[in-house]
Amino acid sequence: MRDIILACVGGIIALAGGVYLARLLYYKKFGVIAKAEVTDAAAVTKRAGVFSYIIVTAKRISHYTHTLRYEVNGKVYEEKDSAAYTQPLKIGSTHLILCDPKDPKKFKFEADVSRHITITAALVVMAVIFALRFLLVK
């Protein structure tokens, strides 16, 4: 019974990773590539400390969000990213992005998509091997 439960856990992890991998591959295959310029960088702060909600503590920067300007099909968009980088991108720098062809307001950084495909594929393979180990090896 324990082996079946562990195999199911591995299967669920592989399934979740597969869904995310399919989404990334959709952006890679069908995404509209555009050159985006960083127009703004804003720091997102969070409270730091063990008792951050009880005692007033110092705030620290959690991550940065960036506003990017890009053009897709003759229309200019200016949208915030959801990548949550720990270092700010230089204002005025340009980056390649992949836009959703159905909704160009949704985008991902091209370099991130390629990197995440590799990492996610490796994790899905490991989850499948984990699940098969508990199903087949007795």
UniProtKB/TrEMBL annotation:
Keywords: Membrane, Transmembrane, Transmembrane helix. The keyword Membrane applies. This is DUF3592 domain-containing protein. The chain crosses the membrane at residues 117-136. It comes from Ruminococcus flavefaciens.
